[in-house]
Specification:
5% strand; 6 strands; mainly alpha; elongated; two-stranded antiparallel ribbon; 20 helices; two-stranded parallel ribbon
């Protein structure tokens, strides 16, 4: 099969090279970006007098037919065409003749692929940000229902202080907000047009890069052509953004896995989003959060793969850069389905409030409240209060009860400065609602955070 670049060569490429060199098996995903970019390029060439109005009309009509053939499944993708750019241009030329051969004037596959891939990544940054928003909405709705549902807050996976389940879930909403901001920041930073840079040094043709950028909704054109054709920072950014997003999803997944175990029994996943065992009939496995946790490693691998590809490339374009797409495509698809199934799993998950409340009676969660009481109401220095509280916890342990259940006489025997009103401060509900500092777990503060996220979600619609 004759290549568009074959004039220099006396021998045909081997079939082995064709398979090794080709990207058409996966880069056809960029067909819409390629066609739209080519039409904008043709319109600019016409405006500059490089193409006639008739040639432009032929290109536009031919591209419309190519697009229809691709979307209807009639387009024949051939490995000998190497990539989608060659395949589409060759088909266009077959349809409209010599006008198709003029389309590649003042451009190279180097800036063409940079254009297509950049526009795909920009679009996916936006789509993923919107998908995160839907998960955030689900999380905020759960938080609204559970602003008074007691939950043991933990550090080191040990019971620490009582919080409410809504407050805990809003921690994940906050993570997702940062994720959205990262995707949006990437759009703003990378929305620059590479087309017109040609192979690496620009073109002698009288082109108008600003016009093409405007037609394709870019904010501006790139500054330096040598950098532009070999730049894949935008691809690395979306891989990093997805990796960070999946890290947050994995942390939530880990907690759901723990919470759904018999040791916790805080939540139960819907039958729709659980699986069973091939040998143990009683099993109900949390496969959704486990897979989400596992897929996080997969997207990390894609990020590290492209970082490794890019780390030693001299300027400008190198064929190594062809390895940029499959990892991005895979990570994008992983993020999209992960967000969708996480949202549905959360929406259908049962929250077991009583089990959470009972767990708050283990681990002496109000110990800090006793120390704070001694400081505020008895004038005891904090370090001494810490020691006295430790003795109170030890006494509760001896009695086989939680500190929140201890009687006043036991505390008074430890330190005579402790007054009877201390019992109110040891209540788990009081402890949770005492934390009224900004951003805290008290119901009033949790409701403030819910209102904040409600406003945020409205603003980004």
């Amino acid at each position: 099969m004759e290549k568009m670049w074959s004039g220099r060569f006396a021998q045909d490429a081997s079939s082995l090279l064709e398979h090794f060199n080709a990207s058409i098996m996966f880069d056809q995903k960029l067909y819409r970006e390629d066609i739209e970019g080519s039409i904008a390029h043709a319109q600019m060439l016409c405006a500059q007098g490089i193409l006639t109005a008739q040639e432009l009309a032929s290109i536009e009509e031919g591209m419309a037919q190519v697009l229809s053939e691709i979307e209807s499944g009639k387009f024949e993708w051939k490995i000998g065409d190497e990539d989608l750019h060659m395949a589409i241009e060759k088909r266009l030329t077959t349809i409209i003749g010599d006008a198709g051969k003029k389309l590649h004037t003042a451009r190279s596959r180097n800036d063409q692929v940079a254009l297509d891939f950049r526009r795909y990544v920009l679009r996916k940054n936006s789509e993923i940000a919107l998908a995160i928003k839907t998960v955030m909405r689900t999380i905020v709705d759960i938080a609204r229902e559970h602003a008074t549902t007691l939950l043991p807050g933990m550090t080191h996976l040990q019971h620490a202080q009582p919080i409410n389940f809504g407050f805990h879930m809003l921690a994940y909403a906050t993570m997702l907000k940062r994720d959205i901001e990262r995707f949006e920041s990437s759009i703003a930073r990378n929305n620059v047009s590479p087309i017109g840079c040609a192979a690496l040094a620009g073109t002698p043709h009288n082109i108008n890069r600003e016009m093409t950028a405007k037609l394709l909704n870019f904010d501006s054109v790139s500054i330096n052509c040598l950098d532009t054709v070999s730049d894949r920072d935008f691809a690395l950014e979306i891989l990093f953004n997805i990796s960070t997003l999946m890290m947050h999803i994995s942390r939530l997944s880990e907690e759901i896995i723990l919470w759904s175990s018999y040791e916790f029994r805080f939540v139960e996943l819907s039958d729709e989003y659980s699986t069973g065992s091939s040998i143990m009939p009683q099993k109900k496995n949390p496969d959704v959060p486990e897979l989400l946790r596992g897929k996080t490693g997969r997207v990390y691998g894609n990020l590290m793969g492209l970082l490794t590809v890019m780390k030693g490339l001299p300027l400008a374009y190198n064929k190594d850069t062809q390895e940029d797409k499959e990892g991005v495509f895979d990570s994008v698809e992983t993020a999209e389905i992960s967000l969708e199934i996480l949202r549905e799993a959360l929406k259908t998950m049962t929250i077991k409030k009583e089990n959470m409340a009972n767990a708050c009676k283990l681990g002496h969660l109000s110990a800090t409240d006793l120390a704070d009481y001694l400081v505020e109401h008895c004038g005891v220095p904090f370090r001494e209060a810490h020691f006295i509280t430790g003795k109170a916890v030890a006494r509760a342990e001896t009695l086989g009860i939680d500190l929140s259940e201890i009687e006043y006489k036991e505390l008074h025997a430890i330190d005579e400065r402790i007054k009877e009103d201390v019992i109110r401060y040891l209540s788990i509900e009081h402890s949770m609602n005492a934390r009224t500092s900004q951003g805290g777990t008290a119901e009033v503060r949790t409701l403030e955070q819910i209102i904040y996220f409600d406003h945020y979600l409205q603003e980004i619609q």
